[in-house]
Amino acid sequence: MHSQYHSGNATPRIMGILNVTPDSFSDGGRYSETDAAVRQGLAMLQQGADIIDIGGESTRPGSRCVSAEEQTRRMLGVVRQLRERIPHDIPLSIDTTVAQVARTMLDAGADWINDTSAGFDDPHMLPLAAERDVPIVLMHRLGTPATMQQAPYYADVVREVRDHLAARAHAALAAGVRECNILLDPGIGFGKQGVHNLTLLAGLDTLAALGFPVLLGTSRKRFMGAICGDVGPEQLMPATCATTTIGVLAGVQVFRVHDVAGNRQAADIAWAVRNAG
Q1: How far apart are CA 223 and CA 201, in angstroms?
Q2: What is the pLDDT of residues 134-188, one digit of tens each?
Q3: Which of 10, 19, 72, 171 keeps 20 to 30 A from 66, CA to CA?
Q4: Long-range contacts made by residues 196-201, C-beta under 8 angstroms, separation at least 24?
Q5: 198 exposed, middle or buried (CB, 10 Å; 0-12, 13-18, 19+)?
Q6: Interior/surface letters 161-183, b for 16+ CB within 10 angstroms, e for the rest
Q7: Are 254 and 214 in contact (CB under 8 A)?
Q8: pTM, 2 dp
Q9: Catalytic residues
């Protein structure tokens, strides 16, 4: 019931990031306790979030895998409590590459799967999305989080990411996922150098032209800090808002962010400008 917005005319949606991990790159540990995480999820809703994305495993560069059991332990109470306390038209998304974790969270009330491996890490993930008839985000990633920033190379980053995502979308369709349930994410910062991230942002319209909703996740990422005088992640909300504006004008439909209120404003203004033309 959460997937029927897929048209190029849909208002941009803000996905609030809720990390229940002790080692996330930008807000690690702050929301690791269930009560604090639930409070933060409710606060993001008040700030204008359309979707809450809950993750129990950091995917920052150099991070290591977290067991399915530990991911489940971190996330289960948060999912259950948020599902009880927020309107049912607000989807809860689960950021995991493990089908067992996704299945448990869907049983607990989650609505979307956000798979940073695009179904590569676990062969059961795409069939699960098909079986449950839920939206799934398929992200481009070069290598694994532990190794992805070790000299990533592309001959043509926009074409290679586009072709990879098109192939993963076809794999999802072949597994039985409905076309309206597939979202694509270029994976900014996942196996990309700064120039690759900038080139992808300049070529977002190429990805949108594949015909699937595009999700953009640039929030507080290091490549922007390098441009903005090497400021820390916490200071990159305005930079993130700039990429949200660029994304809306290029046809991106979902923005995965830490700072909901600022990016809600940026998306709404960019959307109004886009439609004024």
Answers
A1: 12
A2: 999 999 998 777 777 788 899 999 999 999 999 999 999 999 999 999 999 999 9
A3: 171
A4: 196/152, 196/154, 196/157, 197/221, 197/223, 198/223, 199/157, 199/158, 200/157, 200/158, 200/161, 201/243, 201/246, 201/247
A5: middle
A6: bbebbeebbeebeebebeeebbb
A7: yes
A8: 0.92
A9: 221, 256
